[in-house]
Design a protein that fits this description.
The complex is a heterodimer. Chain A is of the alpha/beta class. Chain A is built from 14 helices and 16 strands. Chain B is an alpha/beta fold. Chain B contains 16 helices and 13 strands. The chains are: A alpha/beta, B alpha/beta. The structure holds pyridoxal-5'-phosphate.
Chain lengths: 407, 553
């Protein structure tokens, strides 16, 4: 958990809330289009009679925000996107807002979201509250990249897989009020993953998730998605336990491929090496188990080349997002060749999978999926696989090729 | 059906007679818990206050006895009196009566909300037996020849539980179900060690719907734990078990029926797969309430099992102890049982402490004797047929309750659709949460406004938005209807006015707790030392840990 309180103005009187609404978020879902990205989809959805709902969600969130704002406290200044991108929702919730940015009403774009968010971040708002789905979250992440501004999503899209959304519109208002009502030095945020699917593929029935970055979100494990139930120690501790187990199990003089995601990053941190959230990295331990990075953010050819070696090795991955992909989504740098090589030299023990119990529970009984591009490798991974779920804790979980049963 | 709290939701109350001055009570009932803001007993202490004033010792007696403390060895003599609170009798009574009014419990409310805990009624007549001087005056240091009665009760109870489980020997020493699991894991470890297999067999397998104490005890004993998830039908995944077992498998620890209330019909196969690789199989029968007299651990091939006497056999749970666990084992495991065991030659009873392979003591003396007497009396009052009708009634109650709960909008019972459940059901409010934004914890906070209790320890949420109800045989149809009326009312409120549910509880003792503190290991103080380190006393008052950096390291 990172404290980002510093640098924010300290009197409650000038607390500022930024508001962005993606007016077309969610309209695809209502008419069965699995997402609303792309102008064509939007036109189709509207033609099919879809009614935009993002604004209603934003109004619900703001209404709860107003109800939960401490009595007698000066209300926050609200900076909102123009017209249907925030201003209208604030007005309907009975809150005065100052407008930032300009749009072409009725023809808003993803770029509008990015620009408005960048303006809000530059204005120094204490929190950016946005209504939309995973696609919107990506745009928000792009708009405020590098600023460190806290962000919270009001779920209003078809896909809300990212861990930056509150569990409902009303809860978003609650979390936002609770976050802004305390002095800046007591506000806690947690970096959480923005995940999105390739919508064209998704509409064809292929669930391809990928991490697009992270946003600092108010720390509230009970009310922010991917809703982690109130575990005794929280998801961060569960990840730390896995990382500690893995770090202790790595062999001297061995080489490891680390997949993307927060669990693998925690492992790298534990080993004292840097790691990018989205990257596939190759690391190596020396005889004294000191760790070094052999290839950072490695491409498939690099991974392949490094795995064509005689030393002991293994591939360590965490399943991606809500879909449970082990290979083939978000980590295509780990190709069928490298996997096949590990399977033939080390066996199944060379494929190390790590996932917190909450992440497995979120699969709702669905198997882990593999789609390496080589059906033979996919089938070799199918069946059951050991998964590290905690410190000295394992499960044995079902795996199957992603293409099986789809066609 | 009305959405407002506490009024007229059930609709099954009799109509008021025309001339009656008072109308019928609404269902669910209106309720308000007492809140006394009661200090802890030490803060109530008034120097010099006394509850009992013993008479002065008569000089003649004092002359003969002398200073009674003089006989004590100096090492155990106090220099200063103990710092006990000083209160009059009525203040003590008032204090504990107030505290009791701030709780819920099986003697006060319909306690079916505490699923997996088998909150059945404990007949008070059994407490009379326990309070009788014939038991209360016994001391465990007495010579066994003077406590033949209680030893005989223990022996007979052991034989009855052996018959109920099919096992050869039963130890009654542990004080809780988790302690019983711990004893069983310790016996498993000792068994493999005795065969020279101890170092190799370092893995224990359990399932996610078995009680977490199984995983916890195995881990505490040094095992690596493999937890299996359910297959699509909600049964433990047999394929995963086959993939998990190896020469490293020490044991399978499994509950059946699992927390879902679904009985695993392939349980014998599970045991066989584990036996095949040389592992042992241990059956967590803490909740045997639905299978008494119907199926037995031994008949499915298990090597060990345990019962919670404070669940199935009606002794009080005692708020976390002392309760009573019973460990049943086959002859092959019996040498490792906790010592002492009760033995008999048919006329005389004694405690056998000379058991070289024993895992040792798991609780002082021979366990919680009063609970053993209660359990013995409970079984004796029912007889074999009675035990079976307990199970049948519990199953009937459960399936009646399930049919009623599933009529509530937003509730479901994942897995095994259309099948009957055994003694409990893990329900899901997933649909309600999606529709309304009201989560299971919030339903739990709201039902206490109607005097009901709601169990919350379902982690991880494999069943989303879980709720577990276990009605046992103790509740009447009217009781079950009342509980359903509460749930129906709260669910209707969630749809009509979710804010109202979000704000609950309104009529309970405690309103909101700071969950965040519980989520942050940096702020836990599970030992006194950790407390002193993390909350240094500054100027007499404990301060919280500074954010993220516990002082003193
Ligand atoms: C199936 C099962 N096993 C073990 C236990 C642990 O028993 P105790 O709470 O007495 O330690 C419980 C209690 O909830 C249980 O339900």
């Amino acid at each position: 958990m990172i404290d980002r309180g510093e640098g924010v103005r300290s009197t409650a009187a000038d607390v500022t809330l930024g508001l962005v609404v993606n007016p077309i978020a969610g309209i695809g879902g209502a008419v069965g289009l699995h997402g609303s990205d792309g102008a064509e989809t939007v036109r189709l959805a509207l033609a099919l009679g879809a009614v935009p709902q993002a604004e209603d969600r934003a109004v619900a969130a703001l209404a709860r925000f107003g109800a939960r704002w401490p009595h007698g406290r000066m209300p926050p200044i609200i900076l909102a996107g123009p017209a249907e991108m925030g201003e209208a929702a604030a007005g309907r919730a009975g809150l005065a807002a100052r407008v930032v940015g300009t749009i072409a009403a009725g023809r808003t774009t993803a770029d509008d979201t990015r620009r408005i968010v960048a303006t809000l971040a530059a204005a120094g708002v204490d929190l950016v509250l946005f209504a939309g789905g995973d696609g919107t979250a990506r745009d928000v992440a792009a708009g405020c990249a590098g600023t460190g501004v806290a962000v919270l999503g009001i779920p209003a899209g078809v896909k809300v897989q990212s861990a930056v959304f509150a569990t409902s519109a009303a809860t978003a208002g609650e979390v936002a009020a609770a976050f802004l009502a305390v002095p800046p030095d007591r506000r806690r945020v947690q970096d959480r993953e923005v995940v999105d699917l390739d919508e064209d593929a998704y509409r064809r029935g292929d669930v391809a998730g990928r991490i697009f970055g992270e946003l600092p979100v108010p720390a509230d494990e009970r009310r922010v998605q991917a809703r982690k139930e109130p575990t005794p120690s929280g998801e961060a501790a569960a990840i730390a336990a896995i990382a500690a187990d893995l770090a202790g199990s790595l062999a001297p003089s061995a080489r490891y491929v680390l997949g993307p995601g927060s669990t693998m990053r925690a492992l790298a941190e534990g080993l004292g090496v840097p790691k990018g959230l989205l990257a596939v990295d190759v690391i190596e331990l020396d005889a004294e188990r000191r760790c070094r990075v052999v290839a950072a953010d490695a491409r498939a050819v690099v991974v392949d080349a490094l795995m064509a070696d005689d030393r002991p090795m293994a591939i360590i991955v965490a399943p991606i997002g809500g879909q449970g992909f082990l290979f083939g989504r978000g980590n295509q740098q780990i190709g069928a060749g490298a996997i096949a090589r590990v399977l033939s030299t080390v066996g199944r023990d060379g494929i190390v999978v790590a996932a917190t119990p909450a992440k497995l529970a979120a699969l709702g009984g669905r198997p882990l999926l593999v789609d390496t591009g080589d059906p033979a490798v996919d089938l070799a991974l199918a069946g059951h696989i050991r998964v590290v779920t905690g410190f000295r804790e394992r499960t044995v979980y079902r795996t199957r090729p992603a293409w099986e049963g789809l066609r | 059906m009305s959405a407002s709290g506490g009024h007229g939701a059930g609709g099954s109350t009799p109509a008021a007679g025309p001339g009656l001055p008072v109308g019928p009570k609404p269902m669910p009932r209106r309720f308000h818990q007492a809140r006394w803001d009661e200090p802890i007993v030490f803060e109530l202490s008034v120097p010099g206050a006394r509850g009992v004033l013993p008479p002065e010792t008569e000089p003649a007696v004092a002359d003969i006895v002398g200073d009674p403390a003089a006989a004590l060895p100096p090492g155990i003599r106090r220099e200063t009196p103990p710092a006990l609170p000083e209160l009059s009798q009525v203040h003590v009574l008032r204090h504990y009566d107030r505290l009791s009014q701030e709780t819920l419990g099986v003697d006060l409310n319909i306690d079916v909300g505490q699923g997996t805990c088998t909150m059945k009624y404990s007949p008070k007549v059994n407490d009379q037996l326990v309070r009788s001087h014939r038991l209360a005056d016994l001391h465990p240091l007495q010579d066994p020849s003077t406590i033949q009665g209680i030893l005989e009760i223990m022996w007979r109870l052991e034989r009855m539980l052996a018959e109920i489980s099919g096992m050869d020997r039963v130890s009654l020493q542990t004080g809780a179900g988790s302690a019983a699991i711990w004893a069983n894991v310790s016996m498993i470890r000792a068994y493999h060690a005795a065969r020279g297999d101890g170092a190799l067999r370092d893995e224990v397998i359990t399932t996610i719907f078995s009680h977490p104490s199984n995983a916890a005890c195995a881990k505490t004993a040094g095992y690596r734990v493999i937890t299996l998830y359910p297959d699509a039908d909600g049964y433990p995944d047999l394929g995963a078990l086959r993939a998990a077992v190896s020469e490293r498998t020490a044991a399978l620890l499994i509950t059946n029926p699992e927390d879902t209330g679904i009985f695993n019909p392939r349980i014998e196969e599970f045991v066989r797969v584990v036996h095949h690789v040389g592992g042992l199989a241990s059956y967590d029968q803490a909740n045997a309430n639905g299978i008494l007299g119907i199926t037995r651990a031994r008949d499915a091939g298990f090597d060990l099992c345990h019962f919670n006497l404070h669940k199935t056999f009606s002794t009080p749970h005692a708020c976390g102890g002392p309760a009573a666990g019973a460990c049943g084992v086959t002859d092959a495991i019996a040498p490792f049982l906790p010592r002492p065991t009760v033995e008999t030659d048919g006329t005389r009873y004694w405690l056998d402490d000379d058991r070289p392979a024993s895992i040792g003591k798991v609780r002082p003396w021979y366990g919680v004797a009063p609970n053993l007497v209660r359990a013995y009396a409970w079984i004796m009052s029912l007889g074999a047929d009675g035990l079976r009708s307990v199970a049948e009634t519990a199953v009937l109650n459960n399936n009646y309750l399930m049919a009623k709960v599933l009529e509530i909008r937003g509730a479901s019972a994942p897995y095994a659709a259309g099948k009957r459940r055994i003694e409990q059901v893990r329900y899901s409010w997933d649909e309600l949460a999606r529709d309304t934004g009201v989560h299971t914890e919030e339903i739990g906070a709201r039902v206490v406004d109607f005097g009901a209790h709601y169990w919350m320890s379902h982690h991880p949420y494999v069943v989303p938005e879980p709720m577990t109800l276990e009605p046992t045989e103790s509740y009447s149809r009217e009781d079950l209807d009342e509980h359903v009326a509460i749930l129906r009312t709260v669910a209707a409120e969630a749809y009509a006015d979710p804010d109202h549910v979000h704000g609950a509880p309104y009529a309970s003792t405690v309103h909101r707790i700071d969950q965040e503190t519980l989520d942050d290991p940096e702020r836990w103080a599970v030992t006194w030392r950790a407390y002193r380190r993390k909350y240094p006393i500054a100027g007499g008052a404990a301060t919280g840990p500074s954010a993220g950096s516990p002082a003193g390291g």
